[in-house]
């Protein structure tokens, strides 16, 4: 058995697994954000049914394990005739799970916008939609950013679970390399390093965005 | 003359506290009415009911001869829908004690926003009107500044411009200077005085500034424990208060 250098392990992991990890992170993050906004707003709806549905979604996906959700979507759904590719299943499970957390971030930020802002909008005769779009959400968005940034990093790290449903992401590739080379320390150290390197621009990016959207306000 | 605003048997309670007790009160077109009285006496609630921020428990409020909180559907009076309220709000504007400027918009944008989104004005037209209004309140040099960089007095003047640019027939000022440092009160009162003297807008002013009330009001109403305890001509009311409650209230300001 040939011995691999740390550098070779690094390159091998990236070559084989980076694409899937980034794909899953990217699409799951978009799905989570969209679901988070929709269910976060729905949670504050005037209609009881809408509030109820969104409440059930949030509680179910926060209250059960992401790994089990992933298995359920990939292995159990086909039994009911719904067959999804591993990538779709991975994106769906992670997006749904983090969407539930994001919705709480969205809801609490919106509820933290001072009530005076709504009153000013009423006094200016804005419609409910105009109030939300022009005044409440832009202010709530600034408040949600740090939390959404945390969720995004968490989401990136959780994508390692998709290796359990046959997707060849970074973690899957690390497991293969470990099994074939027995360079356990090098392999998993490099895996940590790579996740850290991907996460860095994400948290930096969120910080930059925070600075940009709150420009001039403090 | 028919009143532009008419409160008829209006009652409002918060829990056990009756803030407005069976109020009958008329305001006439173009009139400048000052509401004075101790905190919690119901002055602010009176304005908030008119701005549709809160609903009365009972009674009728009419604005320009139309029922504010109720509308007729199939010959029956029912609670007004949002559409009716929006129609009614066109006539009314309000300035708040704590300004409530939009912190994420520049001064100019704060004043332009509602004319564009609510009245559908073009950006150019809205900008022109906003600039004129901000010049009127003396803030032409602050157009591109965010509210956080303004003093309290400047913030309140922006808030006044923001309300005026909607051209309401009735303007409500809810303690516009109560949140300000004493040295900033004057600049805001001057702006309000100027508006009061030059426009035929109906104005309802809730204030603790007695000299100011005396100077601009056509009529002063003294609120105490949810009722209008005394009202009348400012000179008469301030110089010759009839009720003991008003006498003791005013004595606190003449020290």
UniProtKB/TrEMBL annotation, chain A:
Primary residence: membrane
PROSITE patterns recorded: ABC_TM1
Transmembrane segments: 20-42, 54-75, 81-101, 187-203
Superkingdom, natural source: Bacteria
GO terms for MF: transmembrane transporter activity
Keyword Coiled coil part of the UniProt annotation: no
Topological relation to the membrane, as annotated: Multi-pass membrane protein
One GO-annotated biological process of the protein: amino acid transport
SUPFAM superfamilies membership: MetI-like
Keyword vocabulary terms for this entry: Amino-acid transport, Cell membrane, Membrane, Transmembrane, Transmembrane helix, Transport
Location relative to the cell: Cell membrane
GO cellular component, one term: ATP-binding cassette (ABC) transporter complex
Domain ABC transmembrane type-1: start-end pairs: 18-203
Family: Belongs to the binding-protein-dependent transport system permease family.
Protein name per UniProt: Amino acid ABC transporter membrane protein 1 (PAAT family)
Taxonomic source organism: Muricomes intestini
From TrEMBL, chain B:
Gene Ontology CC annotations of this record: plasma membrane
Compartment(s) where it occurs, according to its Swiss-Prot or TrEMBL record: Cell membrane
UniProt superkingdom: Bacteria
InterPro entries (UniProt xref): AAA+_ATPase, ABC_ATPase_HisP-typ, ABC_transporter-like_ATP-bd, ABC_transporter-like_CS, Ectoine_EhuA, MetN_ABC_transporter-like, P-loop_NTPase
Pfam families according to UniProt: ABC_tran
Matching CDD domains: ABC_HisP_GlnQ (cd03262)
Gene Ontology MF, one: ATP binding
Annotated ranges, domain ABC transporter: 5-250
Keyword Cell membrane: yes
PROSITE patterns reported in the protein's UniProt record: ABC_TRANSPORTER_1, ABC_TRANSPORTER_2
Keyword Nucleotide-binding: yes
UniProt membrane topology term: Peripheral membrane protein
UniProt KW keywords: Amino-acid transport, ATP-binding, Cell membrane, Membrane, Nucleotide-binding, Transport
Location, primary (coarse class): membrane
Family: Belongs to the ABC transporter superfamily.
Name of the protein in question: Amino acid ABC transporter ATP-binding protein (PAAT family)
Biological classification of the source: Bacteria, Bacillati, Bacillota, Clostridia, Lachnospirales
